[in-house]
Amino acid sequence: MKSDGALKQNHQESYIRTRENPFFDGLLSKDIDETKTSKLVMDMSTNGIDQLPFDNSAFSEDFNYESIEHSPSEKWLERSKITPFIQLDIQSNEEENSHAPAILQHVEKIYTVTRRKEKLSNVLLPLSAASYYNGVSPEIQIVESCEGIYKLNAYLKARKDDVNAGVPGKFLYAVMGSDDADVGTVASTIMYSFYLNVTSKNDQICIVPIININRSNLGAHVELKWLLDSCQIHQSSLIFADEIDMSYYDLFGSLKILLLKSSKIANKQEKLKHAVVEIFHCRKGEKIYPWVKNVTIGEEGSCCTAIAEKFVAYSPELLTSKSFSKLLLSGILLDTTNLRDPHCTSKDKYMVSLLINGAGRYGCNGLYQLLRYKMHDLSSMQVGDILRKDFKKWKGQDNTDSRPISQIGMSCIGISIGQLLSYTDNLAHEITCFQFAEKLRALIIVSGYFNKEKNFKREVLVSTESVKLLESLLFFFDFNASRLPLKILQIPGLKNEMKAYQIDKITSRKIVEHLIEEFVGIPKA
Fold it and tell me: Which Pfam families match (predicted)?
Protein backbone atom coordinates (compact mmCIF):
# COMPACT_ATOMS: atom_id res chain seq x y z
CA MET A 1 0.00 0.00 0.00
CA LYS A 2 1.11 3.54 -0.75
CA SER A 3 1.66 5.89 2.10
CA ASP A 4 -0.68 8.79 2.80
CA GLY A 5 2.05 11.18 1.67
CA ALA A 6 2.32 9.46 -1.70
CA LEU A 7 -1.45 9.53 -2.20
CA LYS A 8 -1.53 13.20 -1.27
CA GLN A 9 1.25 13.94 -3.76
CA ASN A 10 -0.55 12.11 -6.60
CA HIS A 11 -3.76 13.92 -5.72
CA GLN A 12 -2.02 17.28 -6.00
CA GLU A 13 -0.26 16.40 -9.25
CA SER A 14 -3.57 15.59 -10.99
CA TYR A 15 -4.62 19.26 -10.63
CA ILE A 16 -1.45 20.78 -12.03
CA ARG A 17 -2.22 22.71 -15.25
CA THR A 18 0.49 24.23 -17.41
CA ARG A 19 0.52 25.89 -20.80
CA GLU A 20 3.87 24.99 -22.23
CA ASN A 21 2.54 24.74 -25.77
CA PRO A 22 4.28 27.51 -27.78
CA PHE A 23 0.92 28.45 -29.29
CA PHE A 24 0.08 30.37 -26.11
CA ASP A 25 3.26 32.47 -26.22
CA GLY A 26 1.67 34.99 -28.57
CA LEU A 27 -1.38 35.33 -26.36
CA LEU A 28 0.17 35.50 -22.90
CA SER A 29 3.49 37.21 -23.33
CA LYS A 30 4.41 40.60 -24.74
CA ASP A 31 7.97 39.46 -25.28
CA ILE A 32 7.26 37.27 -28.26
CA ASP A 33 9.80 34.84 -29.54
CA GLU A 34 9.26 35.30 -33.28
CA THR A 35 11.38 32.31 -34.16
CA LYS A 36 9.36 30.01 -31.93
CA THR A 37 6.04 31.29 -33.25
CA SER A 38 7.13 31.07 -36.88
CA LYS A 39 8.25 27.49 -36.24
CA LEU A 40 4.86 26.77 -34.70
CA VAL A 41 3.09 28.12 -37.80
CA MET A 42 5.21 25.86 -39.99
CA ASP A 43 4.46 22.87 -37.77
CA MET A 44 0.76 23.54 -37.90
CA SER A 45 0.86 23.96 -41.68
CA THR A 46 2.73 20.72 -42.34
CA ASN A 47 0.84 18.61 -39.82
CA GLY A 48 -2.68 19.79 -40.62
CA ILE A 49 -2.48 20.25 -44.36
CA ASP A 50 -3.84 16.85 -45.31
CA GLN A 51 -7.06 17.51 -43.38
CA LEU A 52 -8.03 20.70 -45.16
CA PRO A 53 -11.29 20.29 -47.11
CA PHE A 54 -10.31 22.47 -50.05
CA ASP A 55 -7.84 22.38 -52.91
CA ASN A 56 -6.39 25.84 -53.05
CA SER A 57 -2.98 27.17 -53.71
CA ALA A 58 -2.36 30.00 -51.19
CA PHE A 59 -3.37 31.00 -47.75
CA SER A 60 -2.56 34.19 -45.97
CA GLU A 61 -4.08 36.24 -43.22
CA ASP A 62 -3.98 40.02 -43.40
CA PHE A 63 -5.20 42.43 -40.77
CA ASN A 64 -6.08 45.89 -42.03
CA TYR A 65 -6.38 48.32 -39.13
CA GLU A 66 -7.92 51.71 -39.82
CA SER A 67 -6.44 54.49 -37.71
CA ILE A 68 -9.24 56.04 -35.68
CA GLU A 69 -9.65 57.79 -32.37
CA HIS A 70 -9.17 55.47 -29.45
CA SER A 71 -12.40 54.32 -27.86
CA PRO A 72 -12.66 52.44 -24.53
CA SER A 73 -12.98 49.18 -26.45
CA GLU A 74 -9.80 49.90 -28.42
CA LYS A 75 -7.90 50.87 -25.26
CA TRP A 76 -8.89 47.50 -23.87
CA LEU A 77 -7.42 45.87 -26.97
CA GLU A 78 -4.18 47.81 -26.47
CA ARG A 79 -3.88 46.77 -22.84
CA SER A 80 -4.84 43.17 -23.48
CA LYS A 81 -2.30 40.49 -24.21
CA ILE A 82 -3.90 39.68 -27.56
CA THR A 83 -2.30 42.75 -29.11
CA PRO A 84 1.17 41.20 -29.66
CA PHE A 85 -0.43 38.24 -31.41
CA ILE A 86 -2.22 40.55 -33.88
CA GLN A 87 0.88 42.64 -34.42
CA LEU A 88 2.86 39.51 -35.15
CA ASP A 89 0.48 38.63 -37.98
CA ILE A 90 0.83 42.11 -39.46
CA GLN A 91 4.59 42.28 -39.26
CA SER A 92 5.47 38.74 -40.25
CA ASN A 93 2.77 38.35 -42.93
CA GLU A 94 5.17 38.46 -45.89
CA GLU A 95 7.64 36.25 -44.09
CA GLU A 96 5.01 33.59 -43.37
CA ASN A 97 3.72 33.69 -46.92
CA SER A 98 7.19 33.05 -48.28
CA HIS A 99 7.46 29.81 -46.28
CA ALA A 100 3.85 28.63 -46.68
CA PRO A 101 3.20 25.42 -48.65
CA ALA A 102 2.08 25.85 -52.23
CA ILE A 103 -1.33 24.32 -51.55
CA LEU A 104 -2.20 27.20 -49.20
CA GLN A 105 -1.56 30.03 -51.66
CA HIS A 106 -5.09 30.80 -52.88
CA VAL A 107 -7.49 31.48 -50.00
CA GLU A 108 -7.15 34.90 -48.39
CA LYS A 109 -8.90 36.05 -45.25
CA ILE A 110 -8.90 39.74 -44.41
CA TYR A 111 -9.96 41.02 -41.01
CA THR A 112 -10.74 44.73 -40.95
CA VAL A 113 -11.16 46.56 -37.64
CA THR A 114 -13.43 49.58 -38.07
CA ARG A 115 -15.47 51.94 -35.96
CA ARG A 116 -19.11 50.89 -35.76
CA LYS A 117 -21.31 53.42 -37.56
CA GLU A 118 -24.65 52.75 -35.94
CA LYS A 119 -25.61 53.10 -32.28
CA LEU A 120 -27.37 50.02 -30.96
CA SER A 121 -28.50 51.35 -27.59
CA ASN A 122 -32.12 51.62 -28.82
CA VAL A 123 -32.25 48.05 -30.12
CA LEU A 124 -33.62 45.31 -27.87
CA LEU A 125 -30.69 42.95 -28.33
CA PRO A 126 -30.37 39.70 -26.37
CA LEU A 127 -27.72 39.55 -23.67
CA SER A 128 -24.37 38.01 -24.54
CA ALA A 129 -20.94 37.57 -23.02
CA ALA A 130 -19.62 40.23 -25.37
CA SER A 131 -22.17 42.77 -24.14
CA TYR A 132 -21.16 41.99 -20.55
CA TYR A 133 -17.52 42.90 -21.17
CA ASN A 134 -17.87 45.63 -23.80
CA GLY A 135 -21.34 47.06 -23.20
CA VAL A 136 -24.45 46.86 -25.37
CA SER A 137 -23.01 48.99 -28.18
CA PRO A 138 -19.29 48.35 -28.71
CA GLU A 139 -17.60 51.04 -30.73
CA ILE A 140 -15.50 48.75 -32.90
CA GLN A 141 -16.25 45.74 -35.04
CA ILE A 142 -14.11 43.16 -36.79
CA VAL A 143 -15.25 42.29 -40.32
CA GLU A 144 -14.11 39.12 -42.03
CA SER A 145 -13.69 38.92 -45.78
CA CYS A 146 -12.92 35.59 -47.45
CA GLU A 147 -13.04 33.65 -50.67
CA GLY A 148 -16.82 33.17 -50.92
CA ILE A 149 -17.62 36.88 -50.85
CA TYR A 150 -14.66 37.61 -53.13
CA LYS A 151 -16.06 35.20 -55.72
CA LEU A 152 -19.58 36.62 -55.35
CA ASN A 153 -18.39 40.20 -55.88
CA ALA A 154 -16.26 39.11 -58.85
CA TYR A 155 -19.32 37.45 -60.39
CA LEU A 156 -21.51 40.53 -59.87
CA LYS A 157 -18.83 42.78 -61.37
CA ALA A 158 -18.42 40.50 -64.41
CA ARG A 159 -22.18 40.45 -65.07
CA LYS A 160 -22.37 44.24 -64.77
CA ASP A 161 -19.60 44.51 -67.36
CA ASP A 162 -21.43 42.06 -69.64
CA VAL A 163 -24.64 44.08 -69.47
CA ASN A 164 -22.77 47.31 -70.15
CA ALA A 165 -21.28 45.63 -73.23
CA GLY A 166 -24.71 44.46 -74.43
CA VAL A 167 -24.24 40.73 -73.63
CA PRO A 168 -22.79 39.97 -77.06
CA GLY A 169 -23.43 36.52 -78.53
CA LYS A 170 -25.47 35.21 -75.57
CA PHE A 171 -28.99 35.05 -74.22
CA LEU A 172 -29.72 37.36 -71.31
CA TYR A 173 -30.99 35.07 -68.53
CA ALA A 174 -32.54 37.53 -66.07
CA VAL A 175 -33.13 36.32 -62.49
CA MET A 176 -35.53 38.61 -60.66
CA GLY A 177 -38.39 38.78 -58.19
CA SER A 178 -41.50 40.92 -57.99
CA ASP A 179 -41.39 44.71 -57.97
CA ASP A 180 -40.26 44.84 -54.37
CA ALA A 181 -36.96 45.07 -52.51
CA ASP A 182 -37.53 43.15 -49.31
CA VAL A 183 -34.44 41.45 -47.91
CA GLY A 184 -35.64 37.93 -48.75
CA THR A 185 -36.26 38.75 -52.41
CA VAL A 186 -32.96 40.59 -52.93
CA ALA A 187 -30.94 37.92 -51.10
CA SER A 188 -32.63 35.19 -53.16
CA THR A 189 -32.01 37.05 -56.42
CA ILE A 190 -28.30 37.53 -55.75
CA MET A 191 -27.57 34.10 -54.30
CA TYR A 192 -29.62 32.00 -56.71
CA SER A 193 -28.18 33.69 -59.77
CA PHE A 194 -24.70 33.07 -58.35
CA TYR A 195 -25.57 29.42 -57.74
CA LEU A 196 -26.87 29.01 -61.29
CA ASN A 197 -23.73 30.66 -62.65
CA VAL A 198 -21.32 28.30 -60.87
CA THR A 199 -23.35 25.17 -61.68
CA SER A 200 -24.52 25.93 -65.23
CA LYS A 201 -22.76 24.19 -68.10
CA ASN A 202 -24.53 26.26 -70.76
CA ASP A 203 -22.11 28.83 -72.17
CA GLN A 204 -24.82 30.37 -74.35
CA ILE A 205 -26.57 32.21 -71.52
CA CYS A 206 -25.48 35.14 -69.36
CA ILE A 207 -27.11 34.77 -65.93
CA VAL A 208 -27.80 38.24 -64.52
CA PRO A 209 -29.44 39.11 -61.17
CA ILE A 210 -31.77 42.11 -61.46
CA ILE A 211 -32.99 43.99 -58.40
CA ASN A 212 -36.49 44.91 -59.53
CA ILE A 213 -36.56 48.50 -58.23
CA ASN A 214 -34.87 51.69 -59.35
CA ARG A 215 -31.46 52.35 -57.82
CA SER A 216 -32.73 55.67 -56.46
CA ASN A 217 -35.27 53.72 -54.38
CA LEU A 218 -32.56 51.82 -52.51
CA GLY A 219 -32.21 54.67 -50.03
CA ALA A 220 -35.75 53.92 -48.80
CA HIS A 221 -34.65 50.43 -47.71
CA VAL A 222 -32.25 51.14 -44.86
CA GLU A 223 -32.20 47.53 -43.68
CA LEU A 224 -31.20 46.33 -47.15
CA LYS A 225 -28.39 48.87 -47.51
CA TRP A 226 -27.11 47.99 -44.04
CA LEU A 227 -27.18 44.27 -44.81
CA LEU A 228 -25.35 44.64 -48.14
CA ASP A 229 -22.69 46.79 -46.47
CA SER A 230 -22.24 44.41 -43.53
CA CYS A 231 -21.96 41.46 -45.94
CA GLN A 232 -19.37 43.42 -47.99
CA ILE A 233 -21.35 43.16 -51.22
CA HIS A 234 -20.40 45.89 -53.66
CA GLN A 235 -23.58 47.84 -54.39
CA SER A 236 -21.99 49.42 -57.46
CA SER A 237 -21.91 45.97 -59.10
CA LEU A 238 -25.63 45.32 -58.61
CA ILE A 239 -27.99 45.83 -61.54
CA PHE A 240 -31.30 47.58 -60.88
CA ALA A 241 -34.41 47.61 -63.05
CA ASP A 242 -33.79 51.12 -64.36
CA GLU A 243 -30.23 50.25 -65.44
CA ILE A 244 -31.11 47.63 -68.04
CA ASP A 245 -33.54 47.76 -70.96
CA MET A 246 -34.90 44.21 -71.08
CA SER A 247 -37.33 45.12 -73.86
CA TYR A 248 -34.31 45.60 -76.13
CA TYR A 249 -33.22 41.99 -75.62
CA ASP A 250 -36.81 40.79 -75.93
CA LEU A 251 -37.12 42.58 -79.26
CA PHE A 252 -34.31 40.44 -80.69
CA GLY A 253 -35.49 37.24 -78.99
CA SER A 254 -32.49 36.97 -76.68
CA LEU A 255 -34.29 37.42 -73.34
CA LYS A 256 -35.12 34.66 -70.88
CA ILE A 257 -36.60 35.40 -67.45
CA LEU A 258 -36.53 33.36 -64.25
CA LEU A 259 -39.09 34.52 -61.68
CA LEU A 260 -38.32 34.14 -57.97
CA LYS A 261 -40.94 33.88 -55.22
CA SER A 262 -43.76 34.72 -57.60
CA SER A 263 -45.64 33.14 -60.47
CA LYS A 264 -46.53 36.47 -62.06
CA ILE A 265 -44.23 39.12 -63.47
CA ALA A 266 -44.46 42.68 -62.13
CA ASN A 267 -47.13 44.91 -63.68
CA LYS A 268 -44.53 47.33 -65.07
CA GLN A 269 -42.98 44.42 -67.02
CA GLU A 270 -46.21 42.79 -68.18
CA LYS A 271 -45.13 43.11 -71.83
CA LEU A 272 -42.19 40.80 -71.12
CA LYS A 273 -44.20 37.94 -69.61
CA HIS A 274 -43.75 35.72 -72.69
CA ALA A 275 -40.00 35.70 -71.98
CA VAL A 276 -40.57 33.85 -68.68
CA VAL A 277 -39.07 30.36 -68.98
CA GLU A 278 -38.73 29.30 -65.33
CA ILE A 279 -40.43 29.96 -62.00
CA PHE A 280 -38.63 29.12 -58.75
CA HIS A 281 -40.27 28.84 -55.33
CA CYS A 282 -43.81 29.97 -56.06
CA ARG A 283 -46.66 28.99 -53.75
CA LYS A 284 -48.82 25.95 -54.32
CA GLY A 285 -52.06 26.86 -56.05
CA GLU A 286 -50.76 30.01 -57.74
CA LYS A 287 -51.72 30.48 -61.39
CA ILE A 288 -48.81 29.59 -63.65
CA TYR A 289 -48.18 30.85 -67.18
CA PRO A 290 -49.20 27.91 -69.43
CA TRP A 291 -46.00 28.03 -71.51
CA VAL A 292 -43.67 27.76 -68.51
CA LYS A 293 -42.64 24.12 -68.01
CA ASN A 294 -39.86 24.48 -65.44
CA VAL A 295 -41.70 25.32 -62.19
CA THR A 296 -40.47 24.72 -58.63
CA ILE A 297 -43.13 24.85 -55.92
CA GLY A 298 -41.80 26.27 -52.66
CA GLU A 299 -42.44 23.98 -49.72
CA GLU A 300 -40.28 26.01 -47.34
CA GLY A 301 -41.27 29.21 -45.59
CA SER A 302 -38.41 31.12 -47.24
CA CYS A 303 -36.91 30.97 -50.71
CA CYS A 304 -33.48 31.49 -49.09
CA THR A 305 -33.88 28.13 -47.35
CA ALA A 306 -34.22 26.31 -50.68
CA ILE A 307 -31.21 28.18 -52.08
CA ALA A 308 -29.07 27.45 -49.01
CA GLU A 309 -29.97 23.77 -49.37
CA LYS A 310 -28.63 23.82 -52.91
CA PHE A 311 -25.34 25.33 -51.71
CA VAL A 312 -25.11 22.63 -49.04
CA ALA A 313 -25.31 19.99 -51.75
CA TYR A 314 -22.95 21.77 -54.15
CA SER A 315 -20.28 23.49 -52.04
CA PRO A 316 -20.95 23.55 -48.27
CA GLU A 317 -17.61 25.26 -47.54
CA LEU A 318 -19.01 28.47 -49.08
CA LEU A 319 -21.51 28.66 -46.22
CA THR A 320 -18.73 28.80 -43.64
CA SER A 321 -18.14 32.41 -44.67
CA LYS A 322 -19.84 34.70 -42.16
CA SER A 323 -20.92 37.27 -44.74
CA PHE A 324 -22.07 34.62 -47.22
CA SER A 325 -24.25 32.86 -44.65
CA LYS A 326 -25.48 36.15 -43.14
CA LEU A 327 -27.18 37.19 -46.37
CA LEU A 328 -29.14 33.93 -46.62
CA LEU A 329 -29.84 33.82 -42.88
CA SER A 330 -31.27 37.36 -42.89
CA GLY A 331 -33.66 36.44 -45.69
CA ILE A 332 -34.91 33.37 -43.80
CA LEU A 333 -35.40 35.23 -40.52
CA LEU A 334 -37.42 38.06 -42.09
CA ASP A 335 -39.43 35.77 -44.40
CA THR A 336 -40.44 33.56 -41.46
CA THR A 337 -40.79 36.36 -38.86
CA ASN A 338 -37.92 34.94 -36.81
CA LEU A 339 -39.20 31.36 -37.34
CA ARG A 340 -42.62 32.19 -35.85
CA ASP A 341 -44.61 32.41 -39.08
CA PRO A 342 -47.27 29.66 -39.53
CA HIS A 343 -45.68 28.73 -42.87
CA CYS A 344 -42.27 28.18 -41.25
CA THR A 345 -41.12 24.57 -41.68
CA SER A 346 -38.64 22.34 -39.90
CA LYS A 347 -36.33 22.77 -42.90
CA ASP A 348 -36.27 26.54 -42.31
CA LYS A 349 -35.30 25.97 -38.67
CA TYR A 350 -32.64 23.45 -39.62
CA MET A 351 -31.10 25.81 -42.18
CA VAL A 352 -31.04 28.65 -39.64
CA SER A 353 -29.02 26.46 -37.28
CA LEU A 354 -26.68 25.61 -40.15
CA LEU A 355 -26.15 29.29 -41.05
CA ILE A 356 -25.87 30.51 -37.46
CA ASN A 357 -22.27 31.66 -38.02
CA GLY A 358 -23.71 34.54 -40.02
CA ALA A 359 -25.76 35.77 -37.06
CA GLY A 360 -22.75 37.26 -35.28
CA ARG A 361 -22.27 38.02 -31.62
CA TYR A 362 -25.96 38.46 -30.73
CA GLY A 363 -27.24 35.29 -32.37
CA CYS A 364 -30.28 34.87 -34.62
CA ASN A 365 -32.61 36.83 -32.32
CA GLY A 366 -30.15 39.73 -32.24
CA LEU A 367 -29.74 39.77 -36.04
CA TYR A 368 -33.52 39.73 -36.48
CA GLN A 369 -33.96 42.62 -34.02
CA LEU A 370 -31.24 44.60 -35.82
CA LEU A 371 -32.95 44.11 -39.18
CA ARG A 372 -36.34 45.07 -37.76
CA TYR A 373 -34.84 48.16 -36.16
CA LYS A 374 -33.28 49.19 -39.47
CA MET A 375 -36.59 48.70 -41.28
CA HIS A 376 -38.18 51.41 -39.11
CA ASP A 377 -35.13 53.64 -38.69
CA LEU A 378 -35.69 56.97 -40.43
CA SER A 379 -32.82 58.88 -38.83
CA SER A 380 -30.54 58.72 -41.87
CA MET A 381 -33.22 59.12 -44.55
CA GLN A 382 -34.24 62.10 -46.66
CA VAL A 383 -37.90 63.11 -47.07
CA GLY A 384 -38.02 61.55 -50.55
CA ASP A 385 -36.74 58.22 -49.18
CA ILE A 386 -39.31 58.28 -46.36
CA LEU A 387 -42.13 58.87 -48.85
CA ARG A 388 -40.81 56.18 -51.18
CA LYS A 389 -40.43 53.54 -48.45
CA ASP A 390 -44.10 52.47 -48.58
CA PHE A 391 -45.46 53.89 -51.81
CA LYS A 392 -48.20 52.93 -54.26
CA LYS A 393 -49.36 54.47 -57.51
CA TRP A 394 -52.65 54.32 -59.45
CA LYS A 395 -53.59 55.22 -63.02
CA GLY A 396 -57.12 55.77 -64.21
CA GLN A 397 -59.58 57.87 -66.19
CA ASP A 398 -59.98 61.47 -65.01
CA ASN A 399 -63.08 63.50 -65.83
CA THR A 400 -62.01 66.64 -63.98
CA ASP A 401 -59.40 67.75 -66.51
CA SER A 402 -58.76 67.63 -70.20
CA ARG A 403 -56.09 64.97 -69.79
CA PRO A 404 -57.37 61.39 -70.05
CA ILE A 405 -55.05 59.79 -67.50
CA SER A 406 -54.74 60.63 -63.80
CA GLN A 407 -51.82 59.37 -61.70
CA ILE A 408 -52.27 59.39 -57.93
CA GLY A 409 -49.76 58.10 -55.43
CA MET A 410 -50.06 57.19 -51.76
CA SER A 411 -47.17 57.16 -49.27
CA CYS A 412 -47.61 55.62 -45.84
CA ILE A 413 -45.31 56.83 -43.06
CA GLY A 414 -44.97 55.84 -39.42
CA ILE A 415 -44.52 59.35 -38.04
CA SER A 416 -46.77 62.39 -37.74
CA ILE A 417 -46.89 65.11 -40.39
CA GLY A 418 -45.36 67.44 -37.82
CA GLN A 419 -42.40 65.09 -37.31
CA LEU A 420 -41.92 64.90 -41.07
CA LEU A 421 -41.30 68.66 -40.99
CA SER A 422 -38.19 68.08 -38.84
CA TYR A 423 -36.45 66.19 -41.65
CA THR A 424 -36.22 69.23 -43.93
CA ASP A 425 -36.26 73.01 -43.94
CA ASN A 426 -38.82 73.13 -46.76
CA LEU A 427 -41.31 70.26 -46.66
CA ALA A 428 -43.47 71.67 -49.46
CA HIS A 429 -40.49 71.77 -51.84
CA GLU A 430 -39.48 68.18 -50.98
CA ILE A 431 -43.01 66.91 -51.59
CA THR A 432 -43.20 68.75 -54.91
CA CYS A 433 -39.87 67.24 -56.00
CA PHE A 434 -41.12 63.77 -55.09
CA GLN A 435 -44.30 64.29 -57.11
CA PHE A 436 -42.28 65.44 -60.10
CA ALA A 437 -39.89 62.47 -59.85
CA GLU A 438 -42.78 59.98 -59.71
CA LYS A 439 -44.82 61.87 -62.35
CA LEU A 440 -47.82 62.27 -60.03
CA ARG A 441 -50.73 64.65 -60.42
CA ALA A 442 -51.69 64.07 -56.79
CA LEU A 443 -49.95 62.61 -53.73
CA ILE A 444 -51.68 61.52 -50.52
CA ILE A 445 -49.42 61.03 -47.51
CA VAL A 446 -51.06 58.78 -44.90
CA SER A 447 -49.52 59.00 -41.44
CA GLY A 448 -50.07 56.45 -38.69
CA TYR A 449 -48.37 56.79 -35.29
CA PHE A 450 -48.82 56.59 -31.51
CA ASN A 451 -48.84 59.83 -29.55
CA LYS A 452 -47.38 60.39 -26.08
CA GLU A 453 -50.53 58.96 -24.47
CA LYS A 454 -50.03 55.77 -26.51
CA ASN A 455 -53.15 56.49 -28.55
CA PHE A 456 -53.08 55.66 -32.26
CA LYS A 457 -53.50 58.65 -34.56
CA ARG A 458 -53.84 58.95 -38.31
CA GLU A 459 -53.26 62.04 -40.45
CA VAL A 460 -53.28 62.75 -44.17
CA LEU A 461 -51.59 65.38 -46.30
CA VAL A 462 -52.99 65.95 -49.79
CA SER A 463 -50.78 67.55 -52.43
CA THR A 464 -51.85 68.14 -56.04
CA GLU A 465 -50.44 69.82 -59.12
CA SER A 466 -53.25 72.40 -59.24
CA VAL A 467 -55.79 74.01 -56.93
CA LYS A 468 -58.61 72.77 -59.18
CA LEU A 469 -57.57 69.13 -58.76
CA LEU A 470 -57.17 69.65 -54.99
CA GLU A 471 -60.71 70.98 -54.71
CA SER A 472 -62.04 68.07 -56.73
CA LEU A 473 -60.26 65.51 -54.55
CA LEU A 474 -61.34 67.17 -51.29
CA PHE A 475 -64.94 67.34 -52.51
CA PHE A 476 -64.80 63.59 -53.18
CA PHE A 477 -63.43 62.96 -49.67
CA ASP A 478 -66.11 65.20 -48.16
CA PHE A 479 -68.78 63.24 -50.02
CA ASN A 480 -67.42 60.09 -48.34
CA ALA A 481 -67.05 61.69 -44.90
CA SER A 482 -68.72 58.72 -43.22
CA ARG A 483 -65.75 56.58 -44.24
CA LEU A 484 -63.07 59.26 -43.94
CA PRO A 485 -63.98 62.06 -41.49
CA LEU A 486 -61.36 64.82 -41.80
CA LYS A 487 -60.40 67.63 -39.44
CA ILE A 488 -58.15 70.43 -40.67
CA LEU A 489 -54.54 70.59 -39.41
CA GLN A 490 -52.55 73.81 -39.42
CA ILE A 491 -49.14 72.98 -40.88
CA PRO A 492 -46.87 75.98 -41.60
CA GLY A 493 -45.17 76.39 -44.96
CA LEU A 494 -47.61 74.44 -47.15
CA LYS A 495 -48.48 75.62 -50.67
CA ASN A 496 -51.98 76.45 -51.89
CA GLU A 497 -52.11 73.04 -53.58
CA MET A 498 -51.54 71.25 -50.23
CA LYS A 499 -53.83 70.55 -47.27
CA ALA A 500 -53.26 68.54 -44.08
CA TYR A 501 -55.98 66.80 -42.06
CA GLN A 502 -56.42 64.62 -39.02
CA ILE A 503 -58.75 61.64 -39.37
CA ASP A 504 -61.31 61.79 -36.57
CA LYS A 505 -61.62 58.05 -36.07
CA ILE A 506 -59.38 55.01 -36.29
CA THR A 507 -59.30 54.29 -40.00
CA SER A 508 -57.51 51.59 -41.94
CA ARG A 509 -55.21 52.67 -44.74
CA LYS A 510 -57.15 50.25 -46.92
CA ILE A 511 -60.11 52.64 -46.76
CA VAL A 512 -57.93 55.41 -48.18
CA GLU A 513 -56.74 53.04 -50.92
CA HIS A 514 -60.33 52.16 -51.87
CA LEU A 515 -61.29 55.83 -52.03
CA ILE A 516 -58.35 56.59 -54.31
CA GLU A 517 -59.32 53.71 -56.60
CA GLU A 518 -62.88 55.02 -56.79
CA PHE A 519 -61.64 58.53 -57.53
CA VAL A 520 -59.43 57.48 -60.44
CA GLY A 521 -62.17 55.24 -61.83
CA ILE A 522 -60.86 51.79 -60.98
CA PRO A 523 -63.86 49.44 -60.47
CA LYS A 524 -64.17 47.48 -57.23
CA ALA A 525 -62.94 43.90 -57.31
Answer: DHHA2 (PF02833)
